[in-house]
Design brief:
alpha+beta; 7-stranded mixed β-sheet; 16 helices; about 30% helix
């Protein structure tokens, strides 16, 4: 015998509300690493260590991390010379926090030469030169992922937890030890006034940019802006300057305009990598915007695969590495020199000069790249039309259209069901 099922006539309306509001993102809670680790009894010793050394507190305000945890059995077999000094142990644990999110597929895409990744230890100011970084390698023949420090190696055991683009928790078969760990160093954080050029020189791949910052004098401006909201620098790697097309006369720019281009590489707020990957408004003013007026010298920032893309309307660069992430300063290496449209577009405009500044005005420039893909509405005079990374807008439009069609069909089905009932 058939059993009648009664469906409230308010059901279609309920469905409609759910359909309408399903497109809005749910709020996300702050990261609590101890809660995440509490589900894994085999990591209880490691969890206890990051709590007692206050490393867990360091992680509470961060995102886009990869935690390299060591199971109890491997941790208990580690050399006991790590344990007497709490300062030393805390920095060893910070060395197990990568300031970049890695999924298993990300690890499998690491090139044979490896990938150097900045750790939380690098942000303390106690890491000599680049010793606060871990080198990750992937061996395709054995599918083994290995984490290297100058004094130790560890092999990936498993990926136990991932919250996409926020945190990934991996387990290793051994502790990693940073090189030349200073046992006498103070646990206190370094005072404000980070030496930006020293951080770039220690990065070993930013000598051209460091020299230009010193010669132009703008580095003192950047360091003065470290207070308050902080700053974020996108620094081209040395190869980016060598790869500039001959038509780009960057080194021939007058001193004041070259300084504007350098300011164009800086945001007047502190943005760690996780924040850049989850931005809502992609158009960002730069320090050059503050000097030359709203709507000018802005950049378009968006997520691109597992990295971040910075689009100027002429070139699109990607973040290649985290050089330093120490609130209130974030420094990222980028693959290309960021060329502002105001100087290198079809109709370059005169930038406002600082008071007392000299130098000539760029009155003409040849576009360094093809502009056939730029529509008239995307001209340098309309900063609100800064483009997203190539193909992203088309994919987004297609997705929106498909979702719209599905919602119309679902609406008709609900209406029909309502009439039948």
């Amino acid at each position: 015998m058939a059993i009648p099922i009664s469906i409230s006539k308010f059901t279609p309306l309920t469905f409609l509300y759910l359909l309408l509001f399903s497109s809005y993102p749910l709020p996300t809670s702050s990261l609590n690493i101890t809660d995440l680790l509490s589900s894994y009894p085999d990591l209880s010793d490691f969890t206890s260590l990051i709590i007692t050394t206050a490393v867990a507190a360091d992680l509470s305000g961060r995102s886009s991390l990869t935690l390299l945890a060591v199971p109890n059995a491997y941790l208990r077999s580690a050399s006991t010379d790590l344990l007497p000094s709490s300062t030393k142990l805390a920095d060893v644990l910070r060395y197990h926090v990568l300031l970049e999110y890695f999924s298993f597929s990300d690890l499998r895409r690491i090139p044979p030469t490896g990938k150097l990744v900045t750790t939380l230890f690098q942000t303390t100011g106690r890491a000599a030169a680049n010793s606060g970084s871990v080198n990750i390698t992937f061996e395709s023949s054995s599918a083994a992922v290995t984490f290297h420090s100058p004094t130790s190696n560890a092999t990936l055991l498993s990926l136990i937890k991932t919250l996409p683009y926020n945190i990934s928790i991996l387990t290793l078969n051994s502790l990693l030890t940073p090189y030349n760990l200073d046992l006498m160093a103070s646990e206190t954080r370094p005072p404000p006034g980070l030496n930006i050029t020293k951080a770039l020189i220690d990065g070993h791949n930013f000598n051209v940019a460091a020299a230009m910052l010193i010669a132009s004098g703008v580095v003192s401006e950047f360091e003065a802006d470290e207070g308050g909201a902080g700053i974020t620098l996108f620094v081209p790697i040395d190869a980016a300057f060598a790869d500039l097309p001959p038509s780009v006369k960057f080194q021939s720019l007058p001193a004041d305009e070259k300084a504007v281009v350098l300011r164009f590489h800086v945001l007047h707020s502190y943005y760690p990598l996780g924040s850049l990957k989850s931005i809502v408004n992609p158009i960002y003013p730069t320090l050059a915007t503050e000097q030359n007026g709203a709507g000018r010298f802005t950049v378009n920032i968006s997520r691109l695969n597992e990295s971040v893309a910075i689009d100027t309307g002429i070139v699109q660069a990607s973040v290649t590495q985290t050089v330093l992430d120490q609130n209130p300063v974030a420094i990222f290496g980028v693959s290309k020199v960021l060329l502002p449209r105001e100087f290198f577009g079809r109709d370059p405009i005169e930038a406002d000069k600082p008071s007392g500044g000299g130098g000539g005005v760029m009155t003409s420039a040849q576009p360094p790249y093809s502009y056939s893909a730029l529509s008239p509405g995307n001209s340098p005079g309309s900063p609100s039309h800064l483009s997203a990374p190539p193909g992203l807008e088309l994919r987004s439009a297609a997705l929106v259209e498909a979702v719209g069609v599905l919602r119309i069909l679902l609406g008709w089905c609900i209406a029909l069901l309502y009439q039948l009932l």
